[in-house]
Design goal:
By secondary structure, the chain is mainly α. The protein has 14 helices and no strands. The protein has two domains: about 200 residues, no CATH class; about 190 residues, no CATH class.
Length: about 425
């Protein structure tokens, strides 16, 4: 055991995970520290409006740059990665303008069809945030490529502190859905700016400026599987994950959406803190192993098993004491969100375990397979929510059915990808 701990502390892979995890932990700690104040300022209905906004954004965001930013880690040469960044920005500008034009021309029928009345007055923030989110993704992928994990960690902490201060301060003046949504959207821009400043400083200190003679057409063709397969897959996944919010808004009310949004926010903390940190370090390491012509199966299995061991603790606590903890921390109005959290914890435990599985898919060139899998999964999720709704006509039943369907989906995905590896 002592030898294992010594090897772990000497491992660069483990140290990089620790750096990312420290930054993510700091950001999440700040968010959780402010949460008891924010939930008492805004209330479930306003949280529901914000959740609806984020759900719409998450659904259309995969179309923003056709997933080309995700390919930036793969090229051997930095010039190609910069080319992919430029392509991503061009595509994002076009898609964001198209989204804005669509909302301007068809705002009323879209709002009525999807029951988006709670965000109708500020719905045009969506295309702006859509473009800014691409800037954030590009800067984030570059830090992963160059292994600037310390920079990413510092920017995450500063961004979380700034945004939560704004949410609290502005909320005391005007506790509205607009304030909550606009500060959340500003967070994307702030994160991209912080990382961009750090990258520029690092480039000036460490490297010489180089001219990039990339061919746009060649890069578009070389990484077309991200547009053809990863984008539809990400779109379907976003639809699947946003389904509870959109369907709860239509079948029930904004308050039910608010309960779900808070529960998901809290339950995603272990996944973001541990899973994202591991995945961001795992991805370039796994790509390196594949480039060397080796099998990444052992690395994949070890990473998933480690996440299962670490992640079991926080989720077991939430399964056992969820309602009591939510009522104590966020106020008595949020006890129902604690009931949601018990069942959602089972699902999000499996999300945590499969973070390396999903990260490995591009490197294994399994985008097409993943797309087909995601299409089937989306249908399963829709069916599960409807079964839960018609079963007892309660929002909790819909959440339970959705959570259990995700357990089946992620278990099947894990078995499938490990076998392909």
């Amino acid at each position: 055991m002592l030898n294992f701990i010594k090897r772990l502390t000497r491992s660069k892979f483990a140290r990089n995970i620790a750096i990312v995890a420290t930054g993510t932990a700091g950001a999440q700690a700040i968010a959780m520290a402010f949460s008891p104040f924010i939930t008492r300022i805004y209330g479930p209905e306003i949280f529901g409006a914000m959740g609806t906004f984020i759900a719409i954004l998450e659904v259309i965001s995969p179309l923003a740059a056709l997933s080309y930013p995700m390919a930036m880690v793969l090229p051997k040469h930095d010039s190609d990665a910069k080319g992919l960044a430029a392509i991503s920005l061009c595509i994002a500008l076009v898609t964001s303008c198209l989204a804005a034009l669509t909302l301007i021309l068809f705002k009323t029928p879209i709002v009525n069809a999807l029951n988006l009345h709670s965000i109708e007055t500020f719905i045009l923030i969506i295309p702006v945030t859509m473009f800014v989110s691409v800037l954030t993704t590009i800067s984030s992928q570059w830090t992963i490529r160059k292994k600037l994990f310390s920079l990413k960690a510092k920017s995450a902490v500063f961004q979380a502190l700034t945004i939560n201060i704004l949410k609290t301060g502005l909320g005391l003046l005007n506790p509205s859905a607009f304030i909550l949504v606009s500060t959340t959207s500003f967070g994307y821009l702030l994160q991209a700016a912080l990382i961009g400043i750090g990258i520029r400083a690092h480039t000036q200190e460490r490297t010489k400026r180089e001219k990039s003679n990339f061919a746009f057409a060649g890069l578009l063709k070389a990484y077309k599987d991200f547009a053809y397969f990863r984008t539809p897959q990400a779109l379907l996944n976003s639809i699947g994950q946003s389904l509870p919010i959109l369907m709860l808004a239509n079948l029930f009310n904004p308050t039910a959406v608010g309960f779900y949004v808070l529960a998901r926010t809290v339950l995603f903390v272990p996944s973001i803190l541990i899973g994202t940190s591991v995945a961001e370090v795992f991805y370039p390491k796994f790509v390196e192993v594949i480039h060397q012509g080796k099998s990444g199966k052992e690395l994949l299995l070890k990473t998933c098993l480690s996440l299962a061991i670490v992640g079991s603790i926080p989720y077991l606590v939430l399964i056992m004491f969820g309602p009591w903890l939510f009522s104590l921390i966020f106020g008595s109005d949020w006890q129902e969100a604690g009931e949601y959290s018990r069942w959602m914890s089972i699902w999000l435990f499996f999300v945590l375990i499969t973070r390396p599985i999903i990260s490995a898919i591009p490197a294994l060139s399994l985008q097409g397979l993943f797309l087909a899998f995601e299409a089937v999964s989306t249908l399963v999720r829709i069916a599960a929510i409807l079964i839960g709704y018609y079963w007892t006509n309660s929002a909790l039943s819909a959440v339970i059915a959705f959570s259990l369907s995700n357990v089946i989906i992620y278990t099947a995905l894990t078995i499938l990808i490990i076998r392909k590896t």
